[in-house]
């Protein structure tokens, strides 16, 4: 059963049978919002390029990053399945996917932060049906979903982070709007959540 996450909410990532998760998928989906006005409606929605990134931290320091220009972490535990430049057609599926093999994440990596940014610079007022979700990759069960609220002047969002908790992992929804076209622009905001 999926949990709709609210800003700051934290959940333990354990399976219902008590076992630990071994692989998760972070999915990002979105559509361009319809333009307002008669002529704008004839032109249709603008193409919007949102980018999903996974930033791996060790002791508060950035150790690696997986994004559209670096699709696999140096150790191979995190993989981005490719850049989607326009978003979805409204089917509700994942437009960009980041896979995390939790069992292979090096022990020194203690946090993985997921971000979304508008590479083409549109604000989230121009995006609709945007979501981030975490799925158990072994069985396809959706564990948690975070909905990007429409509107606002933000061009980026610090979505959530996975962090080590004992022998397993926990997910914390951050949901902080930010400004920036790339993950590098978001580092000052991310540092407050480590």
Plain-language structure description:
Residues 1-180 form the TerD domain. InterPro entries: Stress/Tellurium_Resist, TerD. It holds the Pfam family TerD. This is TerD family protein. This protein has 194 residues and is mainly beta. It is built from 2 helices and 12 strands, in the order βββαβββββββββα. A 6-stranded mixed beta sheet has the order 1-10-9-3-7-6, with no helix packed on it. Strands 2-12-11-8-4-5 form a 6-stranded antiparallel beta sheet, with helices on one face. The longest helix is centred in the last third of the chain and has 9 residues, at 183-191.
Give a quick set of tags describing it.
194 residues; six-stranded antiparallel β-sheet; globular; mainly beta; 8% helix; TerD family protein; TerD; six-stranded mixed β-sheet; 2 helices
Please provide the count of β strands: 12
Q: Uncertain regions: pLDDT < 50 for 5+ in a row?
A: none
Q: What's the main sheet like?
A: 6 strands, mixed
Please trace the helix and strand order, writing H or E for each element.
Answer: EEEHEEEEEEEEEH
Strand content: 35-45%
Spatial sequence of strands, sheet with the most strands: 1-10-9-3-7-6
Overall mean pLDDT score?
Answer: 81
Structural Rg: 16 Å
- State the distance separating the first and last CA atoms: 28 Å
Shape: globular
Please, how many helices? 2
Helical fraction: under 10%
Structural class: mainly beta
């Amino acid at each position: 059963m999926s949990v709709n996450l609210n800003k700051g909410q934290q959940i333990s990532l354990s399976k219902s049978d008590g076992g630990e998760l071994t692989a998760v998928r972070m999915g990002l989906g979105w559509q361009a919002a319809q333009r307002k006005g008669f002529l704008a409606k004839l032109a249709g929605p603008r193409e919007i390029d949102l980018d999903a990134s996974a930033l791996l931290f060790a002791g508060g320091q950035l150790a690696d990053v997986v994004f559209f220009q670096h699709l696999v972490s140096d150790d191979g535990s995190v993989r981005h399945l490719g850049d989607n430049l326009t978003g979805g057609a409204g089917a509700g599926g994942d437009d960009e996917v980041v896979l995390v093999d939790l069992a292979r994440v090096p022990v020194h990596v203690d946090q993985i932060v997921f971000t979304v940014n508008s590479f083409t610079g549109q604000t989230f007022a121009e995006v609709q049906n945007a979501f981030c979700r975490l799925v158990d990759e072994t069985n396809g069960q959706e564990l948690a979903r975070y909905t990007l609220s429409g509107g606002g002047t933000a061009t980026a969002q610090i979505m959530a982070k996975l962090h080590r908790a004992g022998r397993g992992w926990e997910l914390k929804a951050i949901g902080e709007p930010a400004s920036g076209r790339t993950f590098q622009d978001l580092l000052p905001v991310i540092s407050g959540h480590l």
